[in-house]
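Blackboard transcription, Thursday session:
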Amino acid sequence: MLSPSYFFTGSIPAVAGFRRNCPQIPTIRIVSLSSSKYVNDTNEHYFCRKSVNYWDKFYKRHKNKFFKNRHYLEKDWGNYFSVTDEDVNAKVLLEVGCGAGNSIFPLIAAYPKLFVHACDFSPQAVTLVKSHSNFSEAQINVFLCDVANDDLTEKVLPSSVDVVTLIFMLSAVPPNKMLSVVQNLKEVLKPNGHILLRDYAVGDSAQVKLEKKNQMISDNFYFRGDGTCSFYFSEDFLSSLFIRAGFNIVDINTYCRQMENRFHNISVQRRWIRAIFSKP
Ligand SMILES: C[S@@+](CC[C@H](N)C(=O)[O-])C[C@H]1O[C@@H](n2cnc3c(N)ncnc32)[C@H](O)[C@@H]1O
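(Written on the board underneath:)
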């Protein structure tokens, strides 16, 4: 069992247990499978074409047991969800790629006035959210949507959302579709609205493992054993993506944590990126 063993302090005191200035990342060998048996005439990789099927299988198999509830969202970004005396209306949140609801249920418990739109392209995920004991139609509008291909404004009013959360979601999208996703989100955000993102960072131990197993699709993008895909972000890549879509960068940092497996006597490094972007 992996357990966190080292706690680092960085220059962001609010994020105890993580550090910003991560050491040199391991060298990643760049081998693309783009000419392999997985690619069809349209040059689209098999696991990208089948992404929705594999995520749906994932939720059929794991139900809501795979991810833990993400209570750190309130700690890290509480001010984006809470209402002040000056706010006339409750805050409106859109959680994209909501999965089984591990981000939204802790948030509605902590902020009872929050209104949440939540979407996922997996029908199983949407069913899991609707069947959660804390689900309330008055507070949560959950719907099926492939944000890389469907127009979000058909489900959510344009310029009506205060905050969008992307929690380990954008990494599941093929890199050539990420810009369309971000542009889609921009349409539903209010001016001065924010996107809060937490996701995998380049050099994470899971990336090193996938690399060794030769499961690369393209630079920093891989398929896992269960058929789902994952991208590993650098700050440069993520910043450029959001700047191209017309966002401002409020904050962007990489965090790492050394995890030790005493039984196997190995130590691995987990890396995450956390960022805030604002719509002008
Ligand atoms: C790692 S899970 C994160 C779940 C959730 N955000 C959480 O905090 O637990 C990634 C989610 O993104 C969803 N997803 C991937 N691509 C998507 C797309 N194009 N449109 C909508 N949802 C997508 C998957 O079905 C999956 O539920």
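Lecturer's comment: Confidence is low (pLDDT under 50) at residues 1-18.
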